[in-house]
Structure formats: structure tokens, C-alpha cells
Specification:
Strand content: under 5%
Shape: globular
Number of strands: 2
Distance between the termini: 36 Å
Structural class: mainly alpha
Strand order of the largest sheet: 1-2
Length: 238
């Protein structure tokens, strides 16, 4: 099945949403204020629900002290509380099946002519968003839509803690097809049962949410798929 390509205008807007979300999902390091400023300028006139949600997220993150923002990031995206940014963890946990799922992401990146980023799992939401925004829109859209249940579960977890990141993930969800009945059933089952817990078969991969140099699951900046902190389609600064 192939997803229908959106009209050009909506395509441009959703790529801005994806790139902006990827930048705001980076760990709040010293460059974070600059990324916030870039995103705020890029989404200032972005139409629709996604624009409103991104502006809300940027406003709430801008109100945080830099130290508080870093602490909140690490506390928020904690895989033990089902708020991980690693999409395949929701459906595969730490099982052999997750290795296959991760390979699907890496294969999609290589097919588009880019190398999966070193030091980060290919299913990290910010990696997928940057890929979709700046490398291969259709392939990235397909990956995101295929993991709609994970996106919805992340939104649910963020809403429960009134996280400033909740509207950001909601903005991403607004660019995807409405959840199918299968998506809803999968999300309901995973919400009740959690991900599979067979901790085998993933020796080559770091544990989702494992501490990195800047904190648990932290990313110090944009992923390695492209250079710079660009907002695509000529919107915002470059």
C-alpha cells in the first residue's frame, strides 16, 4: 500500500512541522535557545492546528530556565514510564523482533542515500522527523504513519504529565493519517500491557533511554543525516 501524496502546499507545511519538531526534541544544551528562536520564527505564520501546537510548545519551552529545561527533558523521555522517543520500543520492547524493526528504519535511510546517524538508534523520533523533512519526504512519512500507535502512546504519556512537549508530538500526529481501527486497538492493548519484555537479541543496540553524554536519552543537537539546523521550504532562518 502506498500513502497518497499530499498537495504541494500541505507537503511544504508538514515538512516545516517535522523539522521544527526534530529541532525541539534535541536535548536542551547551550544551543537550545537558538533552536527555539529559529523554530519560533519558522512557525510564526504556519497555518492550521500544527502551527498552533508548535507555537504553544515553543512558548512553554522558552519559559523554562535552561537548567530546568534540561532536567525536564531527561525526566520526561524516560522509557520506564512509556514516554520514550524510540518508536519501535512501544511495539517490540527489548526483543529479537525489535532488531528487525530497527533494520527497517536503517534500510529506508540507506535507500534514500544517507547513513543512519552514529550513536543513535534509527527509530529515534527526532531522527525520523529530520529524515522526513530534509531527505525523503515520502519514505519518512511512511515510517511515521506505520508507527502511528507509538506516536499516540507518547502523546498520551506526555498529556498525563502536562508536558510542554505534548503539543509538539500532537503537531506531528496532525500531519499523519487518522488512526485506523487497528491503530486504536494496538494502542489500547499496549497501554494496558506495555511493550514485550524479552531482554535478548539486542546486544548491538543501546538500551532505549540509556544515559548519554548529556543525560538520559539526550541528543546534543540535530541528527547526522544532514548538516545544520535548517528549516526546509525556505521558511524561517537558515
Amino acid at each position: 500500500m502506498r500513502f497518497r501524496r499530499r498537495p504541494a502546499e500541505r507537503s511544504a507545511d508538514r515538512r516545516v512541522v517535522w523539522q521544527a519538531a526534530s529541532l525541539l526534541l534535541a536535548y536542551p544544551d547551550d544551543a537550545f535557545p537558538n533552536r527555539l528562536e529559529l523554530v519560533a520564527a519558522a512557525v510564526a505564520d504556519l497555518p492550521g492546528r500544527s502551527g498552533e501546537l508548535l507555537r504553544d510548545c515553543a512558548r512553554r519551552l522558552s519559559a523554562l530556565d535552561p537548567v530546568d529545561a534540561a532536567v525536564a527533558y531527561v525526566d520526561t523521555f524516560d522509557w520506564r514510564r512509556r514516554r520514550t522517543l524510540f518508536l519501535t520500543y512501544y511495539t517490540a520492547g527489548d526483543t529479537r523482533g525489535r532488531g528487525v524493526a530497527l533494520l527497517e528504519f536503517a534500510t529506508a535511510y540507506r535507500a534514500a542515500g544517507v547513513t543512519p546517524p552514529a550513536g543513535e538508534l534509527p527509530d529515534h523520533l527526532a531522527v525520523v522527523l529530520e529524515f522526513a523533512a530534509t531527505v525523503d519526504e515520502e519514505a519518512g512519512f511512511t515510517l511515521l504513519a506505520a508507527h502511528r500507535s507509538a506516536v499516540d502512546l507518547l502523546i498520551d504519556g506526555l498529556r498525563k504529565m502536562d508536558s510542554p512537549y505534548a503539543p509538539l508530538i500532537e503537531a506531528v500526529a496532525a500531519t499523519l493519517p487518522a488512526p485506523t481501527e487497528h491503530d486504536l486497538l494496538t494502542a489500547r492493548r499496549l497501554a494496558m500491557q506495555g511493550p514485550p519484555a524479552e531482554a535478548v537479541g539486542l546486544d548491538p543496540y543501546p538500551m532505549a533511554g540509556a544515559p548519554a553524554a548529556s543525560g538520559a536519552g539526550a541528543r546534543s543537537g540535530p541528527v547526522d543525516l544532514v548538516l545544520g539546523t535548517r528549516i526546509p521550504i525556505g521558511k524561517g532562518s537558515s
